[in-house]
């Protein structure tokens, strides 16, 4: 029966590098049928890898998400293989589950469990949708992301640095539980390896740690920095990049730091939460976020300690000025960007997705 052939084992016609893969393989015909020929109606969105489609498997009616490598994608076969190999080895409630892959001719696809609530950014930065994220849901999302990172950094069979943590890579299930996704840029570190370096800096503006963006140095503390940005975005409902705040020209990180110094951190909390949030938890999240954003990696806590700080009432350390505060300055009516941090490092060019 055709249904019985939908998931295949390796065959000789596939690429030699597939011997490294530990995921089930799907036929291209199965993917075409599941997505109705990759119709625009089934298209969920598009990322650095390529378009993502909703599909339904004929054999069991299971809903899936199909990520199809685009020919114009900045990510290529190397990133695809990286994600396939990693995802086969990772299992955690706060990581998206990969069901298999499809490799046939020039086609490269990853098949995931379908997340009906899509990604965090679809809620967090939409004026209407963000109202559905009450404080309980937001705090649960924060803690879930932290648990997922703890698994990646120390509890899995591998030590993995994600390198592209951002709201669009946090998927939400039926109960709004967070699932970290998109491991195309992730790096595996050895048990004794503290950090790595690269000449090819890839990631997303506004979430990259200073040492990574400038020097190509990455470590688990790079993910901690990204988590700090994400934490402030979840509390405030604002993006770090592309937005300046009334009465000052700072980005979100700079705005949060200014309010912290003035003792007015409550002003950072999303207005749509009104009086529904727990003040002590929200203020603790802001303080922990700033601690994650410290300029020097050694000054940032690890994710185990981050989760401990978020979930108990212990006394927290006082943060120093974060890295990558961005101030927009006006020159004859034109807006320019002036990046600076404690050591006044300026980024000139970053190769980012």
Automatic annotation (TrEMBL):
GO MF assignments: ATP binding; protein serine/threonine kinase activity
Matching InterPro entries: Kinase-like_dom_sf, Prot_kinase_dom, S-locus_recpt_kinase_C, Ser/Thr_kinase_AS
GO terms for cellular component: plasma membrane
Assigned EC number: 2.7.11.1
Record-annotated Protein kinase domain positions: 38-316
Protein name (database record): non-specific serine/threonine protein kinase
One GO BP annotation of this record: immune response
Annotated CDD domains: STKc_IRAK (cd14066)
SMART domains: S_TKc (SM00220)
Keyword entries, A-Z: ATP-binding, Disulfide bond, Glycoprotein, Kinase, Nucleotide-binding, Serine/threonine-protein kinase, Signal, Transferase
């Amino acid at each position: 029966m055709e249904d019985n052939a939908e998931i295949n084992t390796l065959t000789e016609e596939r690429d030699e590098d597939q011997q490294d893969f530990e995921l089930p393989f799907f036929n291209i015909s199965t993917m075409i049928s599941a997505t109705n020929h990759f119709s625009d109606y089934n298209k969920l969105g598009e990322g650095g890898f390529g378009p993502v489609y909703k599909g339904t498997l004929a054999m069991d009616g299971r809903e899936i998400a199909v990520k199809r490598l685009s020919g114009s994608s900045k990510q290529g076969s190397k990133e695809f293989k990286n994600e396939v190999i990693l995802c086969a080895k990772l299992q955690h409630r706060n990581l998206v589950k990969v069901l298999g892959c499809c490799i046939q001719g020039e086609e490269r696809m990853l098949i995931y469990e379908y997340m009906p609530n899509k990604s965090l950014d679809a809620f967090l930065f939409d004026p209407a949708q963000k109202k559905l994220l009450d404080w309980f849901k937001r705090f649960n999302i924060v803690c879930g992301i932290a648990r997922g990172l703890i698994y990646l950094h120390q509890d899995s069979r591998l030590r993995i640095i994600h390198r592209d943590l951002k709201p669009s890579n946090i998927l939400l299930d039926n109960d709004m539980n967070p699932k970290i996704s998109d491991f195309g840029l992730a790096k595996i570190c050895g048990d004794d390896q503290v950090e790595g370096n690269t000449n090819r800096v890839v990631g997303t503006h506004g979430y990259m740690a200073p040492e990574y963006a400038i020097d190509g140095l990455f470590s688990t503390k790079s993910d901690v920095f990204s988590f700090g940005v994400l934490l402030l975005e979840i509390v405030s409902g604002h993006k770090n990049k592309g937005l300046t705040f009334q009465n000052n020209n700072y980005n979100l990180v700079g705005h949060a730091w200014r309010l912290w110094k003035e003792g007015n951190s409550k002003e950072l909390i999303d207005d749509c939460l009104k009086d529904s949030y727990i003040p002590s938890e929200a203020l603790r999240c802001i303080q922990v976020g700033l601690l994650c954003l410290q300029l020097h990696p050694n000054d940032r806590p690890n994710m185990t300690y981050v989760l401990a700080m978020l979930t108990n009432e212990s006394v927290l350390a006082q943060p120093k000025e974060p890295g990558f505060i961005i101030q927009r300055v006006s020159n004859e009516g034109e807006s320019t960007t002036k990046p600076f941090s404690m050591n006044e490092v300026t980024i000139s060019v970053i190769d980012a997705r």
